[in-house]
Amino acid sequence: MKITQRLQWTLVLFGMLLCSAVVAESYGKQKVVYHINYDNPAAQAGAMRNIQNHINAVGAENLDLKVVLHGKGLSLLIEPDLAAETKLPRGNATDEMQAKISGLKQQGVIFNVCANTLKGKKIDLDEHIYDASESDVVPSGVAELAKLQAQGYTYIKP
Amino acid sequence: MNRLGSGISEELLNALVDNEFTPEEQAEKLAQVRRDKVASVELNHLRELKESVRLAYADPPQPNHEPYKMKLLHRPYAIAVSLILFSVGFLLLHNLSFPMPWSDSERLILLDPIGQGDRPATASDNSMRVVFHVQNIDHISPGELLDDVESLIEDFQARGETIRVEVVAHGDGLGLLRSKLSTEQQRISQMVKAYPTLTFVACLNTIQRLKVEKGIEVLLLPEATTTESGVAHVVRRQKEGWIYIQV
User: Do A35 and B148 touch (CB under 8 A)?
Assistant: First the structure.
């Protein structure tokens, strides 16, 4: 291969790298909080889809994304059979939903649950909540939403 | 001409939004539009658009006037006067013990478009300000909503911080503040007494709509204040730096 040809290839490759860098950076870094306090399964599935699309557009490495669940919103993480043991009317964490949630967690999404709701609705973190630990619990969902916005998180209610 | 489904023209919708009819005509046309779902949605859209544009141009640029030509003789006086005014202003700003025309709390009231003279904004500049937007309460009972509001305020008070909270109700959410429908009258009254920085705000557009469409004369709880448009109010609050939570 001639030197000029090699040089041309290098330039093309360099250009492509530059382009992809520009695309990845187009939205910059984002801090976002999603708010879920309803138990409509279609609406919750829609919210998970919104979040995945959000990650696809911005890139997981550019996103600090939290989902704050309180009130009936906790149904997202409760298996349908287990809801009867709590004071929530329904659980929406079917196998399909659990797979979606795990997928989002692997991309860095954090699901926070409200301690007031756990207590008030007789929900046990270990027994009833899908894949959650003590570090996912926040004292109050509403206060957490206020705190995160004060820290510069953008609020989205899907 | 762009016509919507049932013979309602866009011109009519625009005229409605701009209040170009007499009050009787306005009510009649509004009722006609509200019977048509598509037109109704379009009307709401136009109203929101108008509101957004109005907010975007809160301080519109002034038109240019002919430049004022100063007579040559007056110029030295003008320079002298402006020098004096400048030094007076400079001294005032540097001498902060001089009472300023308004204190911080008064300035907050000036920013506040709804009539709340009797409920002054006691919260200081650094305190948290939160607006709850209530437009649909299918998934949450009014009691649970008030629990959320109360625990938020208690949470801040326990840490010795002040928090100002507004609960803005419109659309289906207005039921919270209607004396014939609200299941929480007593609780709202108690909360407003217990927390001086808590306000409940009802949307006048919704009240007007209920009157025109269903002939309902809405009676509000005595604790409720009002605002022209609930949507515009929460948009304005966010622009002012309030934290927004949709119920």
Answer: no
pTM higher than 0.95: no
Contacts of A58 (CB under 8 A, 6+ apart): A27, A30
Whole-number Å distance between alpha carbons of B153 and A117: 17
Task: State the ipTM, two decimals.
Answer: 0.78
Is residue B184 within 8 Å of B137, Cβ to Cβ?
no
Comparing CA positions, the residue from B191, B190, B237, B200 lying closest to residue B220 is B200
What are the φ and ψ backbone dihedral angles of B241, each rounded to 5 degrees?
A: 95, 10
CB-closest option in B139, B151, B246 to A140: B151
Q: Is B124 left (phi over 0), alpha (psi -120 to 50) or beta?
A: beta
The pLDDT score that the predictor gives to residue B117 is 35
pLDDT per residue as tens digits for the range B48-103:
777 767 666 666 556 566 555 656 666 667 777 777 777 666 555 554 443 334 33
SS3 category, B29 = helix
Mutation site for B-interface testing, chosen from A32, A37, A40, A69 by largest number of B Cβ within 10 Å: A37
Rounded-to-integer distance, Cα B194 and Cα B192, Å:
6
- Reference B130, options A146, A52, A125; nearest CA is A146
Instruction: Mark yes or no for CB contact B139/A139 under 8 Å.
Output: no
Pick among B125, B127, B132, B139 to test the A interface (most A CBs inside 10 A): B139
Contacts of B243 in chain A (CB under 8 A): 145-146, 149-150, 155
Does the beta carbon of B77 lie under 8 angstroms from any beta carbon of chain A?
no
User: How confident is residue B114, by pLDDT bands cut at 50, 70 and 90?
Assistant: very low
Q: pLDDT digits over B184-208, tens only?
A: 999 999 999 999 999 999 999 999 9
3-state secondary structure of B17: helix
Edge-to-edge order in the sheet of strand B198-203: B224-227, B198-203, B163-169, B128-134, B243-246
Compute, in degrees rounded to 10, the torsion defined by CA atoms B102, B104, B110, B111: 150
CA B201 – CA B220 distance, rounded (Å): 10
Q: How far apart are CA A39 and CA A92, in angstroms?
A: 8
